[in-house]
Predict the 3D structure of the following.
Amino acid sequence: MVSELQRLVDSFGARLGRSIAVDDARLKLLAYNAHTGDVDDARIESVMHRGVSTALVAHVCEQGAARAFDVFTLAPCPRIGITMERVGMPIRYDDALLGYVWLIGSDGPVGDGAVELLREAAAQAALVLHRARLGAEVTHSRARELVRDLLAPEQALRAEAGAALVEEGHAVAGPVAVLVAVVGETDESPAEERRLALELAVDRCRRRLPPSRGLTLTRPDHALLLTLWPGARSRVIERGAAELAEVLRQKLVAEVGSGRAAQCWVGVGGPRPRLTESLSSYEEARRAAEVARITGTLGHVVAHARLGAYALLGKLTPDELAESIPPGLRRLLSNPAHRGLVESLRVYLDHAGDARHAATALHVHRSTLYKRLHRVEQLTGLRLDVGDDRLAAHLGLKAAELHPRLPASTDAPDVVF
């Protein structure tokens, strides 16, 4: 595609006697010829980095370029480096926007003849980009199909998919680590919008990786990025996957809007030595993302290795979670009148039974905390000076956080005496 576009740009540039450039729909530079006149900072940035700033993309959108169906003029905006007028022509195929052809004002006025050539160049570029898009869709469709098989329960199917991914050039052989992205549900975000945001975020993150080092798959409630690290040791993979997870969350926040940043989570699965073992890393990454979403206390980018007890509890079904909570504690949790007691117990156990630090965190006197804990013992039948009971209580509270129906702990304790 790039070579075809370059030949097109060179041909029309010679016919026009001026510089010409072709961008994709997101203003990534695809092809350009030599400049015949002066250029501004925006054009230099585009050539040097094959892309432009988000501010410039916003300016082009505000000028109505994405809605245009014929030649239009882009006004200068010195604040973002555009000091010269542009004349653009959208590249469309069946009305779908595929990109733009640009002429820069420093080469002189754009007459009627140049406008006709600009339209002709856009029409030919549309055929090139449409064919490239069809080819990419076929390739991506095949890769997605194989990734689905790679995560199937059947081992034989996973083995076949792994071999096909390598043989067909979609992936390289070697260690793998999976990232899973999740967006919280709200009334203002339809499911299709969340799915599109997830798909765009993982795809843009994948593009940061070398060819055949990243595979993506979008599912109704999450998206995954499968990363490949040939020849790398586990520590290098863990560090690289963690850095990539931060980038993935940034991309996701950019898609859903900064106002919903708190509703975006990324889980990181542990590395596995072979592509065919991706399922294990994927399950870990998804569990980490879901636990982070449910608890709200682990951060927005969470590695499975950091889940602690949640790693085990996250494997349990809702019924198994409920059964893991001591009966007395379950009764305490189910009574809204005791939420202050629950919070006091949680803070006390999270501070490893250190009453002084727990009381400080709760903003109460230590004697008040002791009274609350004594009341907890009376209501639950647990003895907090017994190690097994204390462990059961702590695990029970964490299980309650993950349970879809049991009440969660509160932000602040009620007055309970």
Observations:
- The first strand starts at residue 20 and ends at 24.
- The radius of gyration is 28 Å.
- The longest helix spans residues 112-150.
- Strands lie at 20-24, 29-32, 72-74, 86-93, 96-104, 176-183, 214-219, 222-228, 264-268, 301-303.
